[in-house]
């Protein structure tokens, strides 16, 4: 079984995203947070599922679009335990920059 952990920066990013949405709609903010956690759980089980975006960065980062939201991305490195985001968000995009993937034997 695999699990994930957020880096401190990712915790801050997710809280910032949640807070921004919660101002207008608390239920929507909770749905986004739940979708991010669901996506992270999936990525912990399938770390190569995200796409490499060489057009955005030369770093070995993968990008995963959080469904069903079209502007919420998880950026992570599937090759190491902890990563930091080196990407910049495009206008309107939300990035939860990193997760720590652990794969149990």
Instruction: Provide the number of structural domains.
Output: 1
Number of strands: 6
N- to C-terminal separation? 8 Å
Determine the CATH topology. YaeB-like fold
Stretches where pLDDT is under 50 for at least 5 consecutive residues are 81-97, 99-105
Largest sheet, spatial ordering of strands: 2-3-4-5
SSE series = EHHEEEEE
**Can you identify the CATH class?**
Alpha Beta
Q: Which structural class do the helices and strands define?
A: alpha+beta
CATH superfamily: RelE-like
Largest sheet: 4 strands, mixed
Shape: globular
Taking all residues together, what is the mean pLDDT?
75
Strand content: 15-25%
Descriptive report:
The chain has 105 residues and is an alpha+beta fold. The protein has a single domain (2-103), classed as RelE-like (YaeB-like fold). Helix content is 33%, strand content 23%. It contains two helices and six strands. The strands form two sheets. The chain has a four-stranded mixed β-sheet with strand order 2-3-4-5. It has a two-stranded antiparallel ribbon with strand order 1-6. Helix 1 (8-22) packs antiparallel against helix 2 (26-45). Mean pLDDT is 75; it is low at 81-97 and 99-105.
Keywords:
105 residues; YaeB-like fold; 23% strand
Question: Could you give a short description of this structure?
Answer:
With 105 residues, this protein is of the alpha+beta class. It has helices spanning 8-22, 26-45, and strands at residues 2-6, 51-52, 62-65, 72-76, 94-96, 99-103. It has one domain: RelE-like (YaeB-like fold, 2-Layer Sandwich).
């Amino acid at each position: 079984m695999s699990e994930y952990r957020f880096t401190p920066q990712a915790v801050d990013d997710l809280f910032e995203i949640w807070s921004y949405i919660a101002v207008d709609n608390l239920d929507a903010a909770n749905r986004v947070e739940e979708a991010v956690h669901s996506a992270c759980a999936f990525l912990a089980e399938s770390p190569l599922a995200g796409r490499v975006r060489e057009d955005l960065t030369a770093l070995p980062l993968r990008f995963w679009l959080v469904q069903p939201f079209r502007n919420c991305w998880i950026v992570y490195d599937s090759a190491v335990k902890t990563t930091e985001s080196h990407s910049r968000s495009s206008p309107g995009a939300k990035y939860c920059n990193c997760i720590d993937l652990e794969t149990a034997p």
